[in-house]
Write a structure and sequence with these properties.
mainly alpha, disordered N terminus
Amino acid sequence: MAGMESEHPGYLEDKADLTKRLRRIAGQVNGVERMVDEERYCIDILTQISAIRSALDRVAIAVLDDHARHCVVAASEGKRDERTTEMMDAVARLLKSR
């Protein structure tokens, strides 16, 4: 192991919280499917989709924060630039998907 780098992902300390959030999001997605099946009002469905996107964004920010603190800042000097580039590429993909 080089420098302060660890073999595990930075989000492990928050894994239980992330898992709980993702399960809640999965429940929201299932709820939207039921709404479509029940032919609910379009705006109500769109409101739920917006809430799901916001919840996913919060999960992404939490994972990104953990990555920055654990995988970038704590990386060995030789890997820091590589990890920073990876992180910024991931941020660009997240922004592009919006």
